[in-house]
């Protein structure tokens, strides 16, 4: 309780003003000295003076005196006011302190969250969750890192993630840090393999997971790896064929060091070794322009010949010199064989262009060994004509003759195509050369040639032809040597549609047309038309636009392998053989052939080399040390091989069985064409094999042929190996007849 200092009335402890008189109440505070000590009682009021009645003896009603409250006055700075002010300041300080703590906690908590979320500061290199390099690169880029890609050869599939360089999972790096993603290019030959010892090269290449095959090649640096296929630093396009390495040995021939050498330097080098050298141009990559890309005899092959043809790389500006040949005082584009070779897309889809069966000009090419029904459908650069004019791009004055053919233009490109612009009667090309030939219901027929040309029947059949003849879209490639102007072709509207793909202009390539969108077109618009219309699918002014624009799926790059390993003995040093190696490549068995039980024997000349012919798909073993003759100028039918002393000659030869002769018919044909003095000692047929041995002109001839008709759908071929030696050299020749002929194999 409080006592009003003014009127003495008792007030509650929490009252600020007296309830009786309204005076301000003073709240007592304990000093440090009196805290906790009881204060003395308030003195009683003084006794009244004499003469005045004692108030306590009177009965006077007590009434409160109304008091008008006075306005509160400012704090007078007394002790009580100071206490109140101090209390307020303390409360305010506490509130500010709490707010500061809360703000600090919020900031710290948010900072920790931002840190943990890696919205600022270093980033954690994530654990890799994919086996594909593309996915790994995206994962790292999503964390803010800069990704660099690096490719290495390995046994894993192309594009497989291998490892990281410059970081590892769990590392914390600044945003924008560079990390290298190492990915697989698939199997290949790592750079630096050439020049290694065979042992080191084999150890390196065994990790590629494919067959590794070693060959001995003539080289100036024996005992080292002199050449590889694929080339040093290049990927493997055909895993089934494996990786080939050429180990240098001493010997006579064109050394492998000639490959890639400047043409003039190479010519001088071989001439200094006693060779007579001819230089010829061939399309090549930009890096090989002016350098040797091929040779005949083959580079690295042992031979005692003193004549050599060296092929050097050129670009589109030399196209007429590459595919052209002098004919009737003009230049005709008939040397199509110069375009033969293997071509592959970026993804490893490969095709092989090889010389077809026809020996006529122009040389025709076929795709992947598939001979067409008609030689007209082999690939050439020519339009149909009865003379060389269909192959002449320009006349003697330089005026274009093949109107709107690319080869006559200025882009440097050329069209390699089938059909020569001729119509079809069913599946057969109809040339019209025979005036008595006609087409009836898609079947070629002939009228009686004894009747006059303008006989009514002929007229009727001529009308039938007009009803039946059609143009079909056939194989067509645009050949793009280095330097050919693709942009000009695109500007001219040559292609249908567009593509973002940019072909590698530093390598020769083919653009393959997609024929699926094209439908057959009648050769005569109306049956009554007397003039046949131009083929809309062949080069010329009426050709439909090329479908499609160059893209990753239709651009095939030339594979450059200056050394042909099919001409060498091979030894598999790792991986298992797939049955298709060039020495035992899965040939068709000839179980009924005479003496096949002796096939495991080798000749007395030592372990043999194997000759492999890719055009006619056959192989035969040749005794080691024999001289390999040159490739034929026209058509890769085969080769001749001569013993070191010149006594024995082995001829490997093949041709197409265009007469469809059976083995017995072939034997009869051979016997009928023998010289008059020939004395036959052996003439037998065993299965598909024909054996014929005879003496003539003081020489002994032993021949084995494999006769293949097309009754089973295969291309009809006759494969042959012939041994010839003097009658007085039977001790050397006879043992070979028991072994070499039996190694002849059909690989088709």
End-to-end Cα distance, whole Å, is 126 Å
What is the C-alpha radius of gyration, as a whole number of Å? 50 Å
Proportion of beta-strand residues: 15-25%
Q: Strand sequence of the main sheet, in spatial order? A: 18-17-16-28-26-25-19
Task: Briefly note the structural class of the backbone.
Answer: alpha+beta
Helix content: 10-25%
| Total DSSP helices | 9
The low-confidence runs, each spanning 5 or more residues with pLDDT under 50, are 30-68, 70-75, 576-606
Averaged pLDDT = 81
Quaternary structure: single chain
**Main sheet: strands, sense, barrel:** 7 strands, antiparallel
What's the topology here?
Blueprint: E1 2-3, E2 10-11, H1 79-117, E3 123-124, H2 133-142, E4 146-152, E5 161-165, E6 172-173, E7 178-184, H3 198-205, E8 212-218, E9 225-229, E10 243-249, H4 263-272, E11 276-283, E12 292-296, E13 307-314, H5 319-323, E14 325-327, E15 330-332, E16 341-344, E17 350-355, E18 365-367, E19 414-417, E20 424-425, E21 428-429, E22 437-440, E23 443-446, H6 456-468, E24 470-471, E25 476-480, H7 486-491, E26 509-512, E27 521-522, E28 555-558, E29 571-574, E30 609-613, E31 618-622, E32 627-628, E33 639-642, E34 649-656, H8 663-672, E35 679-686, E36 689-696, E37 699-708, E38 717-726, H9 730-737, E39 745-746
